[in-house]
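User: For a benchmark we're assembling, each entry needs the component sequences followed by a predicted structure for the full assembly. Here are entry 17's components. Please fill in the structure.
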Amino acid sequence: MNDIREKALPKQEQALLDKFLADHRLFLGPDPEIMRNHSIGPRTALEEAILSQPQDAHQLNHVRGLVTAALDESFTMCNQMGAAPGAKWGDLVTAVFTASGDLSMIAPHGIVGFASVCHYPIKFIQKYWVDDPTVGVKEGDGFIHNDARYGGIHNTDQSMIMPLYYQGELVCWVSATIHEGENGACEPGGMPAAAESKFDEGLKMPPFKVVENWQIKRDLLTFLQNSVRDPKLQLEDMKVKLHGVMRLRDRLLAVLREYGRDALVAMLRKNLEDVEAEVRRRIRELPDGVARVQCFMDSTLRENAMQKLQMAVIVKGEEMICDFRGSSPQFMNRSVNTNIASFKAALVTGFLQNVWPDLPHSMAALSPIKIVSDRNSILDADGDMPQAMSLMPLFKACTIPTVPMNKLNYSLPHRYTATIAPQYDQAATFIYGGLTQHGDVTGNFCADINGCGQGARADADGEHAISPVFGFMADSGEHEINEEDTPIIRLGAQRLAKDRVGFGKFRGGLGYEQIATMRGSGMWGFMTGCEGSKFSSAQGLFGGYSSPAYQLCKVKGINVFDTLREDPTRVEKFDMLYLMNERPIPGGKYTSQDMGMTFELCNEGELYMICQGTGGGYGDVLERDPQMVLKDVAEDLISHETARDIYKVVFDPSTLLVDQAATDALRAAERRLRVARGKPFDAFVAQWVTPEPPAHLPYFGSWDDPKVIYATSAGQRIKMDADQLQGVFMPNPKDLRIAQLESLVESLQAELDQCRAKAGGG
Amino acid sequence: MNVLITEYLRINLDTEMWECRRCGQVLIGARENYKRGLLVYDRDPREIHKPLLDTRRYDRTFSPDPAWCRILEYYCPKCGTMMEVEYVPPGHPPLRDLELDIDALKLQWKDRKEVAEAPLGEYHPPQRGHQHSHGH
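Assistant: Structure for entry 17:
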């Protein structure tokens, strides 16, 4: 038997068998050979021939400048003409790829994460469609794509990809990607936390040809429009992206005509190789060793569940490994999983935002770094897992590398950027859907996702509400435009969230409160998709504290417009703490709950309130300049109590003048108290560490040994080997609640029966 | 020669010891987990991130849930500087966040000049709130 199995087929028969199998594949799913490789490919024969000759660096720089201008122009077109809120506020990019499909350049304001996943669909097109007689690739073709399983951050982002031919030869690829929002999922807005399988996620487009001869094919367009809630948006932004890439193509053709094919090919390839070589050099100058970070995500957005995500950065010589083993297993029926390709795109974003932001933005920055993960973990999920809310682990990938990389970078005699604590890392924005005041059906999200507080730096406080974790240039939007388009009324906006601060020698930038209601719609609703209501989200650095927890607060059963009509002075201010603590609107049901909320209807005048969050603090709070503490008090960022209790500053509450001597004495006393109350590490560990996660905690991930993974599946605590992970199945929270209530009814009924029996007996 | 490793920690390459950058306290051998040379305190997160909503009315008040989240504060045993902070679930083993190859570090610094103060980069923003000059 063994003999037969090991015997190779004759060459001709093997070729026949291979062809037969290739011709009869039943389904061209995501290709692991493409999807698991994030490194740049080898030089093509043409690139080798060109780059083996001396290059004119001055000319290459000129070509690079022209391509940058072309990318900027096409980006601006999409930005100005795009209908999606994401297009208006900067969640978009245009990009140029080599002929092999490696991402070489993005538009200067663009989102690198969006582009650094587009090389996957391009490589898929090359592998499967170029030679397929039913598809083929030729000039004038355009391919649409959104499914993250074939490359993409998440399925709300849609791309238009186009090959660029010059004198009959494929020279490069161009793309435009916009966060479109609505995509026909089980909840409006494109990021359904309620998705329990991939079939709840709406449109799942592998790359397919939707443009021929520069025209969008109307039949396919109609199919797509028919699959989403906002057909006008689908049409408009497909056209916008098409014309964006066509303009980019025109500009590149002009470069080709002026400087020739070889100059463009050389520039695109050298961009990649130069960045890769520079990253290797930067790794080489780091100290050899391991730096680790771990974070805990406390919600699946359906229920609270403690998921560990851990990262070890291992450096030896010019080799760097990012090891994520020991993290939470995937969820079979929750949307917070991501595939590894999307995770890597978020990781390169994190490196390019916070570690080496001076490098050109392309996938080459991650190319020399090895990534290790457990298959079927939350960050390396199987393709069948839902991943509509993959932002949860992806945002961590954007922020947590900052911690171990700062610990490795700190010793260097020079800096590539500021030493900075992690940014607030939640998608703290309202996702909405329903009927607009104009009678249109819509679903999308508010641009407040772009207002995360910055982490504190080694030399300054973090900036308030500065940007999303995935880009520098995205803006938190104009509420007036949103109010024109949707029935959302912002009763409170951009009020910095007082006392919700990542404290430290330097503090994190604050987030702001968002208080929203609806007016003038027959049906409207909101959802929110954030973790961090039980466990802090953004970490501090070098002794700085993390962000606090954040809540979703609601006032239901009221109509604030009626209240204000009857008595305009009734609500003193639209401030979350005041509204929730003073309850000025009579008759309302006031609740504070998890920031993960699946879609629910909002009646006219009911209040939904969330916060953007603060970045982590930097350094010991006792080292904060008392004048800076008092400035925060004066600016109403912190209370007098916080200044006294956290920062240990003594001051006159009426004049806000610092008593320096008393402050020094108080701080010295606090340091002595620390020494008195702290325990030696070994003694502390002996008393503190438990052999397993506490029984009361629904815990997912490793505890002390990264090879052993804990989980709670279908209500039972289980243990798994990290290299044999299975998906975890979560019970429906409503079923659990019904069971709780039934049990309560049963016990109350028993009490009632007893009372009746007693009463009857008496 | 000292190598600066964090805001508060350095390694003395000659003695191969971790030291506090604020007070010079020798903490523990550089090949050890530096946390073993520090004091630890298990902090209730509600003491730092205080409840901002009325605790009689609401369970969720902007404070982390102490049954889910604890803050481990690490102090220098001599000067009491808070060198690190770690947020973990109750009973979770503290993370060994740094494990450097000391022999490689010595080789690497053989040809480098000692750095006394960590560089901040070419630009750093002015510290707001403390803008008068001390240059008189």
